[in-house]
């Protein structure tokens, strides 16, 4: 799922604060200093996408990411592969560009999936 710049900034802040944030605190913490109303609009869009949940606390809402950043990145990678015309070619090109650490992580993940851990 593609995110706009402000959506990405909001998610980064929420991922760094797993206990949640209030919109006014979030707005003050963002480098671009958007208005609280702008942040509330973005939070509602993210909630509609299923990425953010809100909980009533007094008269305000506490906003939390519904999943960690790793889950978001994994979903983005899966979606990108779904868009590939030739999945095998896309994977080969991707694997050819990754660092040795990422290649090791891929091998380990595939080994765990197949029950043949390295």
Description:
60% of the residues lie in helices and 12% in strands. With 118 residues, the protein is mainly alpha-helical. A 3-stranded antiparallel beta sheet has the order 1-3-2. Helix 2 (23-29) packs across helix 3 (36-48). It is elongated. The model has no long low-confidence stretch (mean pLDDT 92).
Descriptive terms for the model:
118 residues; mainly alpha; 3 strands; 60% helix; elongated
Q: Terminal Cα separation, in Å? A: 32 Å
Name the average pLDDT.
92
Strand content: 5-15%
- Describe the main β-sheet briefly: 3 strands, antiparallel
Q: What would you call the shape? A: elongated
Radius of gyration: 18 Å
Tally of individual helices: 6
Could you name the ranges where pLDDT drops below 50 across 5 or more consecutive residues? none
Output the helix-strand order: HEHHEEHHH
Annotate the secondary structure layout.
Blueprint: H1 5-16, E1 21-22, H2 23-29, H3 36-48, E2 52-57, E3 60-65, H4 69-83, H5 87-95, H6 100-114
Antiparallel strand pairs: 1-3, 2-3
Helix pairs in contact: 2-3
Quick take:
The chain is mainly alpha-helical and 118 residues long. Helix content is 60%, strand content 12%. The chain has six helices and three strands; from the N terminus they run αβααββααα.
């Amino acid at each position: 799922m593609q995110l706009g710049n402000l959506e990405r900034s909001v998610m980064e802040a929420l991922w760094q604060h797993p206990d949640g944030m209030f919109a006014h605190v979030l707005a003050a913490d963002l480098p671009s200093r958007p208005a609280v109303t702008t942040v509330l609009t973005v939070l509602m869009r993210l909630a509609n996408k299923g990425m953010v949940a809100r909980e009533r606390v007094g008269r305000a809402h506490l906003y939390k990411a519904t999943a960690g950043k790793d889950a978001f990145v994994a979903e983005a990678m899966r979606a990108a592969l779904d868009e590939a015309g030739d999945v095998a070619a896309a994977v080969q090109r991707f694997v050819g560009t990754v660092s040795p650490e990422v290649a090791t992580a891929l091998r380990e993940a595939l080994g765990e999936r197949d029950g043949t851990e390295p």
